[in-house]
Write a structure and sequence with these properties.
Helix content: 10-25%
Radius of gyration: 22 Å
Shape: globular
Largest sheet: 7 strands, mixed
CATH architecture of the largest domain: 4-Layer Sandwich
CATH superfamily of the largest domain: Alkaline phosphatase D (PhoD)
Bound molecules: fe (iii) ion, calcium ion
Structural class: alpha+beta
CATH topology of the largest domain: Purple Acid Phosphatase, chain A, domain 2
Strand order of the largest sheet: 11-10-9-22-23-24-25
Number of domains: 2
Mean pLDDT: 97
């Protein structure tokens, strides 16, 4: 049965590139903000992948069913492609054709690509601005885009903002689907999805502020049911590779992606398996600023990633210690606590709230000669560039890795005076600027990673200007950052 209104309102996307495969995505949604509008029908969708933009040389094609159980989203894991090249793709159903997307495969496993350019972003709050940063990211000509969490925000509409969420705080599957769809109506977000493959991970707001594993901020009942709904909507709307029978109660999001022998991305899930934040205020969960003496902070069993994921991460790092190991994850890893009356005050949601597993990971990097490791982070809505150390108190110690923590695409930040205090109390943080929104672009060669912090003028302007706030280099084999 055909669809009577244009169904490709949410555009197309691709992601999870392997040397011979990439996932292409779309969703049939003639009424995107109100359940999609396809009802309970199963709708066949044809897809094509071509070597050229004019689709004269089609290399793969097929047909899949868009089903209501997946909100008529379509994920095709296109296989038997050539390594290290660009492709074009499109979908068709009935009389309707989707926009054309462009994507690429990763280089072959043994290849030595001379370079890679990727960008990463986080925290795109729809209500407080337009995603105009992405029109600049689009012009950077990147091979790969990474998104590190807070793809959407779950809160209800606020009339004082430049755009409004539809409805109240989202908690059900239908509501999370509508919220994803609303975010995907942003034209610059759609265009960037259609132009390059993305690697994605989530932070808290894709589900609920500051949740941890099965615990919500306000200790609400039935939270795992809500989480499963949010996870399902996320998988439906992202270009992820997942088994057809994925269990949304416990979906595996963490994945590894190699870029030949040049780089290895470890995309982590920092929410699903973490021990709840230490020392919450009485009667609630979630994050807080606590005194460094909070006894829970240093309990030995606490985990940010969970045992399976940390074992998997260590194995992946140790298997390729000589290449660029790029650890893509949501929250700030460098110590960023501030000193008040001689005592440190710790924000418990980021890695500062998990000092024991952080130190274990830093030791692992040092002891296994993983010397070209860059941690990519978001969540702070601040551009922070830092050296990572086993012991942040030891100012003379060599760094073991670098961290690039990117500012938000739109989400509001804290005053620069608060960031200046963090810089004063944390000399391993070499740059901290909360004043601008944007994204980070990184050029990787076998010798060096060069990160440009790209910042936009004003998120309430749909077509903002852009400039480079700072540029940092990380030399291969020499952990730590240098301003250039
Ligand atoms: Fe955020
Ligand atoms: Ca967050």
């Amino acid at each position: 049965m055909s669809i009577s209104r244009y169904p490709f309102t949410l555009g197309v996307a691709s992601g999870a590139p392997l040397p011979t495969a990439v996932v292409i995505w779309t969703r049939l949604a003639p009424r995107p903000l109100d359940g999609g509008g396809v009802g309970n029908r199963v709708v066949p969708v044809e897809w094509e992948v071509a070597a050229d933009e004019g689709f004269r040389r089609i290399v793969r094609r097929g047909r899949v069913d868009a089903v209501p159980q997946r909100a008529h989203s379509v994920h095709v894991d296109v296989r038997r492609l050539e390594a290290g090249r660009w492709y074009f793709y499109r979908f068709r159903t009935g009389d309707w054709a989707s926009p054309t997307g462009r994507t690429r495969t990763a280089p072959a496993a043994g290849a030595d690509p001379g370079q890679l350019r990727y960008a990463f972003a986080s925290c795109q709050h729809f209500e407080v601005g337009y995603f105009g940063a992405y029109r600049h990211a689009l012009a950077e000509d990147v091979d790969l885009m990474l998104f590190l969490g807070d793809y959407l925000y779950e809160g209800g509409a606020r009339p004082d903002r430049v755009r409004q969420h539809i409805g109240d705080e989202v908690t059900t599957l239908a509501e999370y689907r509508n919220r994803h769809a609303q975010y995907k109506t942003d034209p610059d977000l759609q265009r960037l999805h259609a132009s390059v493959p993305w690697l994605v991970t989530w932070d808290d707001h894709e589900v609920d502020n500051d949740y941890a594993d099965g615990q919500s901020e306000w200790l609400g009942p039935h939270f795992l049911r809500r989480r499963a709904a949010a996870y399902q909507a996320y998988f439906e709307h992202m270009p992820l590779r997942a088994p057809a029978n994925v269990d949304f109660a416990h979906p595996r999001l963490y994945r590894r992606f190699d870029w030949g022998r040049l780089a290895r991305f470890h995309v982590l899930d920092g929410r699903q398996y973490r021990t709840p934040q230490a020392c919450p205020p009485p009667g609630r969960g979630g994050a807080a600023v606590v005194d460094e003496g909070c006894p829970e902070l240093v309990e030995p069993g606490r985990t940010m990633l969970g045992n399976s994921q940390i074992r998997w991460l260590r194995a992946g790092l140790a298997a390729a210690p000589g290449r660029w190991n790029l650890v893509a994850q949501a929250t700030q890893m460098a110590r960023a606590s501030v000193v008040v009356d001689g005592r440190r005050r710790v924000w418990t949601d980021a890695w500062d709230g998990y000092p024991v597993p952080r130190r274990a990971l830093m030791r692992f990097l040092r002891d296994n000669d993983v010397r070209s490791c860059v941690v990519l982070s978001g969540d702070t809505h601040v551009n922070f560039v830092a050296d990572l150390k086993v012991d942040f108190e030891d100012h003379g110690a060599e760094p073991v890795a670098a961290e690039l923590c990117g500012t938000s695409v739109t989400s509001p930040s804290r005053p620069q005076s608060a960031v200046d205090t963090i810089l004063r109390d944390n000399p391993h943080i070499k740059h901290g600027d909360s004043r601008r929104r944007g994204y980070i672009v990184v050029d990787v060669t076998p010798q060096r990673s060069t990160a440009r912090l790209r910042v936009t003028d004003d998120p309430t302007d749909p077509a903002p200007g852009v400039e480079t706030q700072a540029t940092f280099a990380i030399d291969a084999g020499r952990p730590g950052v240098q301003r250039i």
